[in-house]
Automatic annotation (TrEMBL):
CDD domains: Maf
Alphabetical keyword list: Cytoplasm, Hydrolase, Nucleotide metabolism
Signal sequence, start to end: none
Organism: Amorphus orientalis
Record lineage: Bacteria, Pseudomonadati, Pseudomonadota, Alphaproteobacteria, Hyphomicrobiales
Active site: D79
Enzyme Commission no: 3.6.1.9
Protein name: dTTP/UTP pyrophosphatase
Amino acid sequence: MTASPTLVLASGSPRRLALLEQIGIVPDHLAPTDVDETPMDGEAPNRLAQRLAQMKAEEALERTRADKTIGPAHILAADTVVALGRRVLPKAEGIAEAEACLSALSGRGHRVFTGVCLITPKERVRLRTVETRVKFKRLSRAEIDFYLASGEWHGKAGGYAIQGLAAIFVSKLIGSYTNVVGLPLFETAALLTGDGFPVAQDRSPTAPEVPSEDAPAAQPNPA
Ligand SMILES: Cc1cn([C@H]2C[C@H](O)[C@@H](COP(=O)(O)OP(=O)(O)OP(=O)(O)O)O2)c(=O)[nH]c1=O
């Protein structure tokens, strides 16, 4: 009987955890990171998303190596960037920043890139960057004020969250929806299965025959 592989999610984002849970994956450990997300001069948005995803995974790898209780693990990290042309919009931390993002996005198309990095138990680095095109309707002053009052923009790339109220601003989306929320599930599943990590299969060696819908959700441990 082979042991169930270990998964470390290098993220403090509740969205990423929820997206993984949506496809039946509960990480064994959470390792939120604290990398400098400032773009380099002239860095293209897709390159930025990929570089930051890799930095997050590598920081979590260092921590995992230092934690003798974990052992070799799959380490998964992601970074989401909202871009207007080559311009990277900030992760809105204040209301003025959020307002500037919404005004810039109003009536225009933009691109959302999520870089995904998987470091395998043999410490091989696998990367994918996924692009989604999103178009916003033209926003009225009242719509912007309504959205700012919701606070949903806080900590979100480009100052909006498509999974909440901002859904009513999206007139068109081409590509992966889950990529915009923070983790493209199709591509993430492909990365994991490509390295032998079971997706859409039971991971536990002695699983109950019939999973109960009432069973409490498993909780990952902080790494
Ligand atoms: C555009 C958009 C972004 N976001 C979120 C996803 C990310 O959490 C965030 C972008 O910031 P990230 O730096 O990608 O992630 P994070 O700092 O929240 O989490 P961590 O680095 O610990 O994994 O914006 C949404 O939730 N919905 C959206 O529609």
